[in-house]
Each structure stands twice: as C-alpha cells, then as structure tokens.
Specification:
Layout: E1 2-4, E2 21-24, E3 27-28, H1 29-35
Antiparallel strand pairs: 1-2, 2-3
Pfam families: SNase
InterPro entries: SNase_OB-fold_sf (IPR035437), Staphylococal_nuclease_OB-fold (IPR016071)
Protein name: TNase-like domain-containing protein
Length: 49
Amino acid sequence: MRFSASAGSRRRDKYFRLLASVKVRDIDIAEYMIERGLAKKYEGDKKVW
C-alpha cells in the first residue's frame, strides 16, 4: 500500500485531515471504489441533508 500527496498540494484540509491518494499494486483505490459503485466522486457542492 502506498500513500502519496502531490507536490505543491495541501497535505491537510481545513479540519487538519490528511489529504492523500492511496494505491495498492498501482491501483488507485478511489477510482476502484467509484467504478464499482462503492463511493461517489465529490463534486465540491454542498449537500442538503
């Protein structure tokens, strides 16, 4: 498993959560989960709860 953050990108968000991509055997876990319907891509908009 590999964690990485892009050069020049923020490593933490405004709540100090770690921002990184996760790869296992060169598979991007976020893309893997989205393709299988296990996650949704964040579009940046606020949700009405």
